[in-house]
Design brief:
The protein has about 270 residues and is α+β, with helices and mostly antiparallel strands. Helices cover about 50% and strands about 10% of the residues. It contains eleven helices and ten strands. Strands 6-5-7-8 form a four-stranded antiparallel sheet, with no helix packed on it. A two-stranded antiparallel sheet has the order 1-2. A two-stranded antiparallel sheet has the order 3-4. Strand 5 and strand 6 form a beta hairpin. The longest helix is centred in the first third of the chain and has 24 residues. About 5% of the residues have low confidence.
Amino acid sequence: MMASGGWQTSCRRSVAGRSPSSLLFVLFEAVLPGYITNAATAAGHDAPVLMYADDLVILATTQATPIMLLQRSGDVVYHQQDGHEHHQDKCPEVSGVGEGPLSKRDKFEVNNQTLEIMPAFEYLGVTLQPSLAVTKHLDKAATKCARATHAIPNIHLLSLDAAVRLFNIMIRPIAAYALRSLWQEMTAANFRQLDRVKSTYLKKALRISKYSSNTKVHLLTNTEHLCVEIRRMHNLPETPAYRQRMEEITDKEDSVELFFLTCPAMQ
């Protein structure tokens, strides 16, 4: 607090909901990311910090980083997945703790309060994983797309052109959400996962088996794969994983039987 003689330490607390409380919270949040980053750097650890409004996420890949940061908050007990307990008075580097990756079964206790290690968390509709994988985000997006598809009554009675237009309006924005930011992290398997959203929709519109060939469905409807559409719409880069996916599509199209390509439905 500011006194006549200058700044002085005060133990008085600000009541929640009062104006000083909000001001102090904003000031605290402004310096917190830098404090955490500097503390980690000084201890020889890498701890990137992400801020989302008033939420803060610390990215840690090893046990040592959270142990070092939590030691500044109180009495820390680290329960390793093998059942061993490690207290803060034992240095992680000396006791052998902190060198391996974090496990789902690892537990941290601060002042007798257990902290949960999150394998993934969702923010603003994006599912983020510590490994920066996109699989869980695409899984949830596919589920949302399936629900939106089921909400369309009698989709098989629509013309193919109407069904495709409806997909572009209702389904594609759900599948493409946040992919501009996640595109570089996507693997060939992720692109296959993304493409299944559109092929599943087309099969439902054509009222054919869900086990039908995705390649033949796209050839029959003369439509692009979803990853191709999204890349073209948003002018996204051609990553190695994307090129691998394109090679897979080309190989499968080349292996389609001649009698299918010359059947009346393809004319």
